[in-house]
C-alpha cells in the first residue's frame, strides 16, 4: 500500500491518474465525503497493490466498544479484528457483577458470527463514571469478595458466550499493588481452567519506580506474568483537560514499549492504539480549557471546512492543524494512516503480539485496511 500526502491543486481524479489507483477504491478506503474535497497535507491510503505483512507476530487485533456503538460501525469493523472488548462490566464492594446499562448480548452474537472472540471488560468504575480505587481496594484485599465476583464472571461468560475477561483497573493505589497482581493471577488461574483467557490493561509506564497515582499500583513484571497477555494503554498524552499535543506521540510510545519489553515477553504484549483526536480552543488555560473529542475522519472534514492545511509532527509522528471559528483559534491533533503506520511498524519491529484499539466507536477504515494490508511504501 502507498500513503499519499495531498498537495495544492490535487483532486481525487488527478491523484488516481498519477498513482494508478482506482478512484472508487481510494474514496472507499479513506471514507471521502462527496464532493470529495481534500485538505492540503491530508494523508490518503492508496490501495494500489498489497503485500500481506501484519503489524504483530501473529496479527492479533482487538478493539474496545460500548454497547451503544452503531451496528453499522461494528459490522464494518469486525472483519478486521480477532477480538472485541465489550466495555464494560463493573462490580460492587460485595463482589456482585454489574452489567452494562445497555444490552451487550447483540455485540457478543455479532462477534461470534464473524469468528471474532468477544471479551468482557471488567472495570472499577463508580457511579460517577470514574475509576474508583476504593472499589479496587475492597476487591483485591478480600478473598471472599474475589471468589464471589469470579463465580459471577464464570456464570456470565458461559451464559453469554464470552471468550475471556480483560481487566482494566486504573488508579490502583500503591499499597494495593501486590494485592492487585495477586487478584489477576487468581482470576487467570481460575478462568483458565474453564478455557477463558485473562488479559490486563497496563497504564503507560516507562520505569518500575515511576511516581504518580496512575503508575505506582501497576507492577509490569508481576502482571505480565499473571495474565495471559497485556495491553499497553499507550495513549492520552494529549487528553481532554491537558495542553494541546499528540494523543500518542511515537517517541513516548516507544519508551513505554521498551520498558515493557524489559520485564514482559514480546509475545505477551499488545500495543494500544488510539482511534480519535482532540480539538482544543486556544489559548489553553490549565484547569479551565476542555478539549472536544473527535474522530479521525471528522478531524479531516473539519480541516477541509475551514480551509486548514494539515501538518505533520515528525517527532510525534502525528498530524495536527489550526483553524479559526467565531473568533477563537483551535488546535487539533488526531490520527491518520501515517501515525498508524508508525505504531504498526513499532509493533512489528519489536515482535509484539498485536494491537488493541481504544476505541472503535467511529470507523477509521484506512487504519484497519493498513493493518490488514501490510507494508507501506
What would your notes on this structure say?
The protein is α/β, with parallel strands linked by helices. It folds into 2 domains: 1-49, LysM domain (Membrane-bound Lytic Murein Transglycosylase D, Chain A); 60-275 and 338-373, TIM Barrel. It has helices at 12-19, 23-30, 71-77, 105-113, 133-140, 143-160, 177-193, 220-226, 250-261, 296-305, 337-349, 365-373, and strands at residues 2-5, 43-46, 60-65, 83-91, 97-98, 117-122, 164-167, 197-202, 229-232, 269-274, 277-281, 292-294, 311-313, 318-325, 328-333, 354-358. The strands form 3 sheets. Strands 3-4-6-7-8-9-10-16 form an 8-stranded parallel barrel, surrounded by 6 helices. A 5-stranded antiparallel sheet has the order 12-11-15-14-13. Strand 4 and strand 5 form a beta hairpin.
Total individual domains: 2
Task: Classify the beta-strand content into a percent band.
Answer: 15-25%
Radius of gyration: 21 Å
Mean model confidence by pLDDT: 95
Low-confidence stretches: 49-57
Class from secondary-structure proportions: alpha/beta
Described by the principal axes of the CA atoms, the overall outline is: globular
Amino acid at each position: 500500500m502507498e500513503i499519499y500526502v495531498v498537495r495544492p491543486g490535487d483532486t481525487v481524479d488527478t491523484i488516481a491518474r498519477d498513482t494508478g489507483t482506482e478512484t472508487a477504491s481510494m474514496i472507499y478506503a479513506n471514507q471521502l465525503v462527496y464532493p470529495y474535497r481534500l485538505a492540503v497535507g491530508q494523508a490518503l491510503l492508496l490501495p494500489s497493490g498489497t503485500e500481506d505483512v501484519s503489524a504483530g507476530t501473529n496479527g492479533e487485533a482487538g478493539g474496545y466498544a460500548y454497547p451503544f456503538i452503531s451496528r453499522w460501525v461494528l459490522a464494518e469493523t469486525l472483519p478486521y479484528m480477532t477480538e472485541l472488548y465489550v466495555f464494560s462490566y463493573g462490580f460492587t464492594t460485595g463482589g456482585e457483577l454489574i452489567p452494562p446499562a445497555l444490552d451487550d448480548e447483540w455485540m457478543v452474537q455479532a462477534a461470534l458470527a464473524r469468528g471474532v472472540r468477544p471479551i468482557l471488560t471488567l472495570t472499577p468504575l463508580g457511579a460517577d463514571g470514574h475509576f474508583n480505587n476504593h472499589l479496587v481496594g475492597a476487591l483485591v484485599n478480600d478473598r471472599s469478595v474475589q471468589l464471589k465476583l469470579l463465580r459471577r464472571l464464570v456464570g456470565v461468560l458461559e451464559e453469554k458466550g464470552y471468550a475471556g475477561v480483560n481487566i482494566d483497573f486504573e488508579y490502583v493505589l500503591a499499597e494495593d499493588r501486590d494485592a492487585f497482581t495477586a487478584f489477576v493471577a487468581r482470576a487467570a488461574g481460575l478462568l483458565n481452567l474453564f478455557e477463558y483467557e485473562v488479559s490486563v490493561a497496563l497504564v503507560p509506564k516507562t520505569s518500575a519506580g515511576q511516581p504518580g497515582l496512575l503508575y505506582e499500583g501497576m507492577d509490569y513484571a508481576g502482571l505480565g506474568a499473571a495474565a495471559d497477555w497485556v495491553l499497553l494503554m499507550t495513549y492520552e498524552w494529549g487528553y481532554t483537560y491537558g495542553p494541546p499535543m499528540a494523543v500518542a506521540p511515537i517517541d513516548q510510545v516507544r519508551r513505554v514499549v521498551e520498558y515493557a519489553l524489559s520485564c514482559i515477553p514480546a509475545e505477551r504484549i499488545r500495543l494500544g492504539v488510539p482511534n480519535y483526536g482532540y480539538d482544543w480552543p486556544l489559548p489553553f488555560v490549565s484547569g479551565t480549557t476542555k478539549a472536544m473529542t473527535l474522530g479521525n475522519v471528522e478531524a479531516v472534514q473539519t480541516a477541509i471546512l475551514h480551509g486548514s492545511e494539515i501538518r505533520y509532527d515528525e517527532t510525534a509522528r502525528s498530524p495536527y492543524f489550526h483553524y479559526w471559528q467565531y473568533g477563537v483559534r483551535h488546535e487539533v491533533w488526531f490520527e491518520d494512516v501515517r501515525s498508524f503506520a508508525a505504531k504498526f511498524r513499532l509493533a512489528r519491529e519489536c515482535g509484539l503480539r498485536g494491537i488493541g484499539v481504544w476505541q472503535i466507536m467511529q470507523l477509521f477504515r484506512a487504519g484497519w485496511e493498513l493493518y490488514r494490508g501490510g507494508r507501506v511504501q
